[in-house]
Amino acid sequence: MVLSVFGSLSTGLMLILGLSSGMAQGGGACFTIDQLRGCAPHTIRVIDCTGDDVDAVSYVYDSQNCNPNTSGCFTEDTIYTFEQPGTYLVLQFARQTNTQEDFDTLVVEVLPSPEPVFEVSYCANREVFLQIDTSGQGYEQYRVVWGDNSPPETIDRQNPRLQHLYPLGGSPNYSLQVQGLYNPGNCGGSASQLLEPTSQIIQPELNRLETILPDSRNGVVDIHFTTVPDYRYEVLRNGELQTELSSEESPATATISNLSNTENSLCFQIRTRDACNNTVLNDDFYCSLSLRIQAEDGANRIRWTSYSDPDIFGGSNLESFQYVLFRNGQPIQLFTDLSTSEYLDTEIDCNTEYSYRIVAEFKSPLLNFRSVSNEDLITAFSTADPPPVSTFNATVESPRSILLFWQVPTKPRIVAYEIDRSGTPITSNVSTLNALDTDLLIDQQICYRISYTNECGNSAQESRLTCPVFLQAVAGSTGDVNLRWTPYINGENSFQSYVVQRQDEFGEFVDLGTLNRFVESYTDQETRQAPQILRYRIKTLIDQQNDVVSFSNVVALEQKFRIFFPNAFTPNGDGLNDIFAPQGLHIRDFKMIIYNRLGEQLFTSRSINEGWNGRHNGQDANQDVYIYVVELEDFLGEKFSTRGTFTLIR
């Protein structure tokens, strides 16, 4: 029977809330609970201890979430399961035979059961180290089952660490189980992990030692290596601890600061310590490299501390060794002799800053290590005079200009050119390899010299002369043209041949002949079909394969127009001398009129190639003397008129 709830119930509950003992008594009310503390889901059993004067008992198990003033919250069940963690107030309501009512309470604590959080570190000799993280968990104790048939171990939360030694020659792996325990309660969540004990400490793999700052007092060295979980690493120098770090990150970097004498080689060893405090010291010594640079005239001298003793690696059977010298981040030289400690770099430019670094590389079956020196900077200088320009040429560019062109070393950078024409300086652009000399009167051979100043502030001696060919032309009495020229001169006094060129009717220069370099004259006898203005130039082949040439000045000769009239013709149809027509050269416009002795006009022609055939009005003209009148104009605009007589013979 479920008891009814009276109005005074809430007040009575408030008065007895503080009661939480294992047995509750209050007037006629009396009950106990078998387990006041347990893990969710937690099942309790209520034991009623009321006397004979009580004829009815009811319970409220979750008074926080169920209002005791509601009859539906009451039950006569004595077994109840709490599904969620929390603190619960359990209420007993008893009605006595004299109709009096009584209440009592007990508090039940239902606990969460999270999985324990722990880490296992492997040690030497198949020993393991267990570290339990107790933060955020309410377990008072932990039970550890090692999985090797050894007895379980229980530890308090105040000292949550254990070491355990697995048997040598045992199984390669074991299942470790850790359970959290409430006390009282004797319950909690558990977690397991598969372990693979190891027999020895695994040493780190060192990759690189880098000297960051070589200094006599405050040197800095970085050691980079690949770590293994569960170990700590101690960096020793001369047996003394310099720094230590854990294996939380891999690869890891150990920085050793405030070192003295890092301009010399400093050697380090690595000691590995496991979680059980076992240690192993690496036999190899890892040494720093210190690099220094000195600028010399036209060179940079690089010196470094050498690895002169191969036993620094404990005699670990080195397969290969080499130094690699870097300049501006690029390798420039390789050395395989351990004792090498110096290099002279002559491939430099003055007033240029260079950075250098040396790297020692070691390889063996158990080793792949690099020692990297500090980076050092230096600005190079040079006082040496640069070589004079040897490839220096000139060509006539136009009737009033000469183009100079040359080749110089690309380094050091040229900052100024000095070009001289018989004491007259020529302006040039430092960014180009040519210069144009303008406003010239080219009436003789013109010669030049060149020098330059580089960015080092050093000037080259003047080059040898370069002189383009100067050409002259003289017309012969028979219509031929005689050409003479000065020899071509350049810095290396070397060229291949001359080519005589004449301009054709289309304005293009065509080759008339190729002459060896020692010939300096030429006669053009083929001028009859050439343009009225004869233009010549000499092309010097300096380097025909690379199309390097030089041109002389252009000379021009004007030819007089020519015209010749026959004094008779025989128009008899035999194909010989049947037409009366003049012969001429360089005639642009032409007009010819034929008259008889009476002054009658018999024939007119407007082309020098069109003559009279001896007929008039369809009839053969009589044998007689006839008169011609000619007007013409040549290609230079000169006009000319003439008249004469000729005989028609039949």
Explain the overall architecture.
The protein has 650 residues and is mostly beta strands. It folds into 7 domains: 9-111, Immunoglobulin-like, CATH 2.60.40.10; 117-195, Immunoglobulin-like; 205-287, Sandwich (Immunoglobulin-like); 291-379, Immunoglobulin-like; 391-454, Immunoglobulin-like (Sandwich); 471-558, Immunoglobulins (Immunoglobulin-like); 562-648, Immunoglobulin-like (Sandwich). Helix content is 1%, strand content 50%.
Blueprint of the fold:
Blueprint: H1 9-16, E1 23-26, E2 29-33, E3 37-39, E4 42-48, E5 54-60, E6 79-82, E7 86-96, E8 101-111, E9 117-122, E10 127-133, E11 141-145, E12 153-156, E13 161-165, E14 174-181, E15 190-195, E16 205-213, E17 219-226, E18 232-237, E19 240-246, E20 252-259, E21 267-273, E22 279-281, E23 286-287, E24 291-296, E25 299-304, E26 320-327, E27 330-335, E28 342-345, E29 353-364, E30 367-372, E31 376-379, E32 391-398, E33 401-407, E34 414-421, E35 424-426, E36 434-437, E37 449-454, E38 471-475, E39 481-485, E40 497-503, E41 509-516, E42 521-524, E43 533-543, E44 548-551, E45 555-558, E46 562-564, E47 568-569, E48 583-585, E49 587-595, E50 601-605, E51 615-616, E52 619-620, E53 624-634, E54 639-648
